[in-house]
Amino acid sequence: MTGYARSRVLHKLADLMEERLEELAAIETLDNGKPLSMSKGMDLPGSVTILRSLAGWGDKISGDTCKVNGPYQAYTLYEPIGVAAAIIPWNFPIASLIIKAAPALVAGCTMVLKPAEQTPLTALFIAALAKEAGIPPGVLNILPGFGPTTGAAIASHMDVDKISFTGSTEVGRLIMEASAKSNLKPVTLELGGKSPLIICEDADVDIAVEIASLGLFFNMGQCCVASSRIFVQEGMYNEFLRKASEKARNRVVGDPFQAGVQQGPQVDETQFKKILGYIESGKTEGAKLLTGGKRIGEAGYFIEPTVFGDVKDDMKIAKEEIFGPVMSVLRFKSLDEVVKRANDTMYGLAAGIVTNDLNVANRLSRSIRAGTIWINCYHVSDPALPFGGYKMSGIGREQSLQAVLNYMQLKTVVTPVHDSPW
Ligand code: ADP
């Protein structure tokens, strides 16, 4: 297919996703537990936007003519890398699928994609829509299965030319190892995080609380970029804790299909138990539990929105990824100090800064080692914004033109030029 034709087919898939939005959103909520208002209002429309935006690159990626130091004509050609594979997680099932499949297909690759074992349903639905949209057989292959079997087989396959993975740092390492031990397929890794949100005392406390709550509690806390270390400057610390706890207490937790519900259950029993374990460790290590801390009811994996104050840098809840509705608040004095502490992590996915001082915002955004810095906002994601991690949060960038180039090879073509000025 030409790039333009691929673009057309992907736009057709986007049309079908819009037509079936209600069903897709309901399936996503059934599978994952996120509030229907989120699936319908954010995950689905957001995925369609990403798909349409990336589809537009189909006929817009060209190579260069190169100025060679001799009588040669030379140019570069972008070619699809070949068979691409993707292994995705359960926290944003449909969005993760589109973030990987759209750039691969628009680049001209085929794709084998393994959804997470917890949430395979919307991926299978998309496979049916892909067929209807005119994506030829064998081009987008949805292969549900478990990680250590299906996932590992994909990662070590000799005929897979590229792999893109989103999930834990631990499994990311296994993916890279499998690539190294098989055919050295290039890897794109989007891994874990322990993102700092730095709140300076000059800021408005209500805005700070708003940003912190969104940063941490969004998607039941199941976000790789969650603001899971909230550093608050001493002048605002007590008031922030009081207001943040009050806001957490007022969150509406319950049946994700019910209108007005802000927080559904955690995705499964494993995650649920892991999060309750972290809450216990916060208590035993001496953090101050301000609100929450327990499961809600007897059925389902519902956890109270939880806030810990007086968290210290060496506590487990300040070091490890919790992936749940547990806010950890740490106190700081000076900017130099907070930069050091914020960077003292193996992760580097995202960071937030809340301040009205432009110089502080600029200084901090250059000092924090993370792939995305949100100033006076959080979780802003857009197909135009490259996304990925520093350090052990990943390799490569997704979204934007960068994403499409992940699935392309760059070929250099050289030929002598005779009897002609060069
Ligand atoms: P999480 O902790 O968020 O569930 P994981 O990294 O365990 O994240 O899982 C993300 C994805 O990686 C899932 O699709 C899962 O099936 C897959 N996976 C898990 N283990 C492996 C493995 N050994 N090899 C390849 N894929 C794996």
UniProtKB/TrEMBL annotation:
<keyword id="KW-0560">Oxidoreductase</keyword>
<dbReference type="InterPro" id="IPR015590">
    <property type="entry name" value="Aldehyde_DH_dom"/>
</dbReference>
<dbReference type="InterPro" id="IPR016162">
    <property type="entry name" value="Ald_DH_N"/>
</dbReference>
<feature type="domain" description="Aldehyde dehydrogenase">
    <location>
        <begin position="2"/>
        <end position="413"/>
    </location>
</feature>
<feature type="active site">
    <location>
        <position position="190"/>
    </location>
</feature>
<dbReference type="GO" id="GO:0016620">
    <property type="term" value="F:oxidoreductase activity, acting on the aldehyde or oxo group of donors, NAD or NADP as acceptor"/>
</dbReference>
<dbReference type="InterPro" id="IPR029510">
    <property type="entry name" value="Ald_DH_CS_GLU"/>
</dbReference>
<protein>
    <recommendedName>
        <fullName>Aldehyde dehydrogenase domain-containing protein</fullName>
    </recommendedName>
</protein>
<dbReference type="InterPro" id="IPR016163">
    <property type="entry name" value="Ald_DH_C"/>
</dbReference>
<comment type="similarity">
    <text>Belongs to the aldehyde dehydrogenase family.</text>
</comment>
<dbReference type="InterPro" id="IPR016160">
    <property type="entry name" value="Ald_DH_CS_CYS"/>
</dbReference>
<dbReference type="InterPro" id="IPR016161">
    <property type="entry name" value="Ald_DH/histidinol_DH"/>
</dbReference>
<dbReference type="Pfam" id="PF00171">
    <property type="entry name" value="Aldedh"/>
</dbReference>
